[in-house]
Amino acid sequence: MGKIIFLVSQLHKLAGPCLTLLYPLYASVLAMESTTKKDDEQWLSYWILYSFITLVEMVMQPALELFPVWYDVKLVLMAWLVLPKFKGAKFLYKRFVREHIKKYTGKHSHFKGKH
Predict the structure, then answer these.
(1) What letter would DSSP give residue 110?
(2) Which of 1, 19, 25, 93 could form a disulfide bond with 45, CB atoms 3.0-4.6 angstroms apart?
(3) CB atoms within 10 A of CB 77
């Protein structure tokens, strides 16, 4: 039984890097090499959000240590951002990030007219 628990804990440790880095890296390369630009938006959005989450996590590290479930919550959030079925990164970018960028960059920004 101890070996099973050890194996599960090791798989859990691998799930984060695989989900947040390996798969997105692979999918980003495929998106760059594809002829369509639709998939580029998902992966550029993902990397913007991943960077933001990582920066917030670095600043908030002492506070996040008080919540032992943070890693699990982050893993679920990242799965939602990454998995093609949900396209959470594209959704969050369009719904929240793009609006803030438009608001703070002004009328003459190169963001004007983008979808």
Answers:
(1) T
(2) 93
(3) 15
- For the chain, the C-alpha Rg in angstroms (whole number) is 17
Confidence band, pLDDT 50/70/90 cuts, at residue 82: very high
Q: What's 42-82 look like in SS3?
A: HHHHHHHHHHHHHHHHHHCHHHHCCCCCHHHHHHHHHHHHH
Integer Cα distance of 59 and 42 in angstroms: 26
End-to-end Cα, the chain, rounded Å: 53
C-alpha 40/C-alpha 100 separation (Å) is 21
Structure tokens belonging to residue 28: 């980003």
For the record, the structure tokens of 15 come out as 């799930």
What length does the chain have?
115
Read off the pTM: 0.80
